[in-house]
Amino acid sequence: MSYEMIALLMFSSMMMSMLTGQRVFATIGVVGVVAAALLWGNGGFELGFSANMKLLKWYALLTLPMFIFMGYMLSESGIAEDLYKAFHVWFGGLRGGLALGTIGLMVVISAMNGLSVAGMAIGATIALPELLRRGYDKIMVSGVIQAGSSLGILVPPSVVMVLYGMIARQPVGQLWLAGVFPGLLLALLFAIYVVIRCQINPALGPALPKEERDMPMIDKLKLARAGVLPFLIFFLMMGLFLLGVTSLVESSAVGA
Predict the structure, then answer these.
(1) 99 and 43 co-located in one domain
(2) How many separate domains does the chain show?
(3) Considering the entire predicted model, what is its pTM?
């Protein structure tokens, strides 16, 4: 059997399995092991085991629990909620302002955690109920949270880039630097889209009532303090790593 046919059978098997509702990791693992066993017999089972053991020995994998811990602390400490309140006050006067604040929150979460799933979970927990309560369009709100959480793939410290750098043997620092501008550019484009849509159809994202926007500047600045710690941690962690003072794992430990 040709390699092209084997690849086609593996791909079609994975697609059929996922379409029936099976877990992605189980689908990929089972198809890979079965294909290896059919091709190399008992050696195929040993190949899968040795590959998993080799993966577990990668030192850089220690960054993953560190970044996950950072995202967990951001959520459980109340910093994410306080930060969203700050965005709520500063941008609420604009049409679609709360959606803009949600995008800003997603950028901060991505810079602290590096995972899209964390941004989606925090956004759905904190931002979604408030946006719906304020009369925002449900479809637009869902799109904002999903698009904003996807920034975790690009904005450093991206866990996906760490894994890619390990597999492709590429420097993670350069990959992170390459993701900064595209990530921020995407966030800006998301914000521009929200503003334009809400200007065309104000019902999609109504502005906050004037009585809620009227707040002394000193109180607004106090709310903005919620963003100081996340940005401080991000710049400290990234600065030490890019300057060569700490390694990748050490930088993640500094952030955690």
Answers:
(1) no
(2) 2
(3) 0.70
CB atoms near residue 55 (< 10 Å): 11
Do both 210 and 228 map to the same domain? yes
Task: Please give the residue range of the domain that contains residue 129.
Answer: 61-255
Q: Output the DSSP codes for 117-144.
A: HHHHHHIIIIIHHHHHHTT--HHHHHHH
Sign of the CA dihedral running 75, 96, 144, 175: negative
Distances (CA, A) of 159 to 65, 146, 168, 246: 10, 18, 14, 17
Assess whether 103 and 225 both reside in one domain.
Answer: yes
pLDDT tens track for 215-242 = 767 767 776 776 677 777 777 877 777 7
Q: State whether 7 and 125 are in the same domain.
A: no
Q: Are residues 27 and 72 in the same domain?
A: no
The pLDDT, as a whole number, for residue 227 is 66
More confident call, 213 vs 199: 199
Q: How far apart are CA 168 and CA 160, in angstroms?
A: 12
